[in-house]
Amino acid sequence: MKLSNVVEKLSLEVKTGKNNLQNNVTGVYISDLLSDVMGNSKDGNIWITLQTHLNIVAVAGLKNLSGIIIVGNRQLQEDVLQKAEAEKITVMSTPLTAFEVAGKLYQLLNG
Amino acid sequence: MPLNTNEITEGDFQIIGGNFTNAGEASMQMKAKLTELGIDEATIRRAAIATFEAEMNVIIYAAAGRLRYYITAHNITIKLEDMGPGIENIELAMQEGYSTAPDWVREMGWGAGMGLPNMKKNSDEFKIDSVVGEGTSVEMIINFS
């Protein structure tokens, strides 16, 4: 499934990396521990998290993740957005909780 | 692209403790270099994880550190030396889940006690030496398949 489908079905707000919406989504990883994501996420995964600081961009870039979904309407600082844009990382935002996003994505990817 | 056996590619980075802004700079540069050399993706992934965790350890715990890498036809060696507090009990520090990170670092999602284990897990050879009050040095070798 393409990232653009996910954005549309979950009504996500795309904050950065609008040019990467054709990325293939291989699955989802949910964690707020960055070393856990480094160790256990897979290429092309969407990462669901409430972390919003600068290091999420490096993690997503190093692990070739297809995008980051920030849950709970958490706001991102301008420097994070700039870094994400520069590194071509797609950061998306939603008012939904991690549980709600996960449920919807599970149905979407396994339905 | 086959690598020239005699050629060594190097990288050398200064890492400043507490500077979370530049975290990942060495790892990303190294990843780009390995990609350029045509190294397989699984190996690049292991090197990226190991190097990034090493960078984070300097940023979280040390005043400063130096990260160097050497790429040959057969492997990549990543060397890290820091001016940090040192590790009192290396065996304990290597245990998954053990961490001495302060709360504010944990709130950022670091300090889960996975850094050193991740580094070891993704290396073919892993050496660590530490002197309390002086610093820690780590050497990791990842073989190309």
Which terms would index this structure?
heterodimer, A: 111 residues, alpha/beta, Udp-n-acetylmuramoylalanyl-d-glutamate--2,6- Diaminopimelate Ligase, Chain: A, domain 1, five-stranded mixed sheet, 5 helices, 5 strands, B: 145 residues, alpha+beta, Heat Shock Protein 90, five-stranded antiparallel sheet, 34% helix
Question: What characterizes the major β-sheet of chain A?
Answer: 5 strands, mixed
Which structural class do you get from the secondary structure elements of chain A? alpha/beta
Rg of chain B (CA only): 15 Å
Kindly report the CATH topology of chain A: Udp-n-acetylmuramoylalanyl-d-glutamate--2,6- Diaminopimelate Ligase, Chain: A, domain 1
Rg calc of chain A = 12 Å
Mean pLDDT of chain B: 94
Strand portion of chain B: 25-35%
Largest interface: A-B, 22 and 22 residues
- Based on the structure given, which CATH architecture of chain A is correct? 3-Layer(aba) Sandwich
Topology-level CATH name of chain B:
Heat Shock Protein 90
> End-to-end distance of chain A, in Å?
12 Å
- Described by the principal axes of the CA atoms, the overall outline of chain A is globular
Name of the CATH superfamily of chain B: Histidine kinase-like ATPase, C-terminal domain
CATH class label of chain B:
Alpha Beta
